[in-house]
Specification:
single chain; mainly alpha
Length: 135
């Protein structure tokens, strides 16, 4: 969910959908500052301050990857995963990173087992067979 929100933010900024500045122009000395440049600089400084043990070039490369992959959900999610895996401080529960894939695998496994059970008479209860016919 968080990666989808982050991806949407980058999409809006990188596609220039948001025309008004997302920063206070009075506090930015550079008059040619764009939303894209501001988002990149702000994200970069935020991550560099949060993870000082990471090389600045790695953080900058991550930000560029986010900007380039903001239109492809799978590439964006993979970039976030790769970055989190590289963090030495990331020791929290990372099960949510793979939740979508686990759900798809469980659904495919369930469908496969049901298909196998339908081939053998008597393995499915009559109520389960009727549910399939109603759908």
């Amino acid at each position: 969910m968080q990666s989808q929100l982050l991806m949407r933010l980058y999409q809006l900024i990188e596609s220039s959908t948001l025309q008004s500045p997302i920063f206070d122009p009075a506090t930015i000395p550079d008059s040619s500052m764009t939303n894209q440049a501001f988002l990149r600089e702000f994200s970069s400084s935020l991550l560099k301050n949060a993870f000082p043990h990471l090389p600045p070039k790695r953080v900058d490369a991550f930000i560029v990857t986010l900007c380039e992959s903001c239109t492809d959900a799978n590439r964006f999610k993979q970039a976030v995963r790769d970055f989190l895996i590289q963090l030495k401080e990331f020791e929290g529960d990372n099960a949510e990173l793979y939740l979508e894939e686990k759900e798809l695998a469980a659904s495919a496994k369930e469908a496969s087992e049901r298909e196998t059970a339908m081939r053998v008479p008597g393995l499915l209860k009559p109520s389960q067979i009727q549910d399939d016919e109603e759908l």
